[in-house]
Amino acid sequence: MSDTSIINRAIWFVEAQLAHRLTLERVATFVGVSQGHLSRIFARATGFTVMRYVQARRLSLAADLLTGTTVPVQDVAVSAGYASHEAFCRAFRRRFGCTPMDARRGLSIVACVPPASRGLLSLSAPVAEIRTLGPWVVAGLERTYEKSADHYPNQWHDFQQQGWNPPLRVDRTFFGIRQPDTRGLQHSYLCGIRLRRESDAPPGWCVAPLPRRTYAVFTHNGHVADIPSTWLSIWTCWSPPDGYRIDRSAPTIECYDETFVAYAGTRGVEIWIPISR
């Protein structure tokens, strides 16, 4: 396994587990390497130790809550893993040079730390299979984001916690559906499952009907943490076949089929790009 793949797997695990107890031992065990080896290559590639990266990401998510919501500071502190308001304020000041309340009032610019894997991606030539798929009904948890896909792992975790296995689901496939936004400022992302009818969706779920459509289908090989590299290679290195164009009015889709191993983050992942003649 390459160092880049090891680091991306570690980052994927950290991002998915930020709301839970994390230790260097847990991360290294999940990735399948020694703690010493992970510590060396992670610090060399990102400039952080693993646990300092965990702290920086938790504080960055806390800063997002402070600047974008009215959640009380004490609750933000707890969500970031701090038992006391004082400990949270000290850590926040060390990280960002200001107090949490200064950040909330807009009195200081907070330089948040994004997921580090975006700088570690490697490209490979993508190969697509042209398929016509649908119509289907997909339903699940939908959220709106400002450009970045950094919070998708947290959304999938929340979807799982809500109960993603209702009795009327069609199969064991999961879908990540990114809806286009003509303004280019925001996009919505739905993580969901396939149902027979819209009326089968549990209360509170969002429904995304997928009409019959032609897609360029790419197989993502490797760990799900490395999926940004597949997306990047599609958008930078791939062109539709003669006679086709990308249909930018339709959603792009990640499909996690029945062979996907969720706890390991491997196998059974495809990316579907809508195309039309």
Structural domain tally: 2
SSE class? alpha+beta
Fraction of residues in H or I helices: 25-40%
CATH topology of the largest domain: Multidrug-efflux Transporter 1 Regulator Bmrr, Chain A
Amount of beta strand: 15-25%
Radius of gyration: 20 Å
Tell me how many strands there are: 9
**Helix count from the secondary structure assignment:** 9
What is the succession of H and E elements?
Answer: HHHHHHHEEHEEEEHEEE
The whole-number mean of residue pLDDT values reads 85
| The CATH class of the largest domain | Alpha Beta
Basic shape: globular
Q: Major sheet, described briefly?
A: 9 strands, antiparallel
Please explain how this structure is put together.
By secondary structure, the chain is of the alpha+beta class. It has 2 domains: 3-117, Homeodomain-like (Arc Repressor Mutant, subunit A, Orthogonal Bundle), CATH 1.10.10.60; 128-276, Regulatory factor, effector binding domain (Multidrug-efflux Transporter 1 Regulator Bmrr, Chain A, Alpha-Beta Barrel). 36% of the residues lie in helices and 23% in strands. The protein is built from 9 helices and 9 strands. Strands 1, 2, 3, 4, 5, 6, 7, 8 and 9 form a 9-stranded antiparallel β-sheet that branches. α1 crosses α2, α1 packs across α3 (35-46) and α4 (50-68) packs antiparallel against α5 (73-79). It is globular. The N and C termini lie far apart (40 Å).
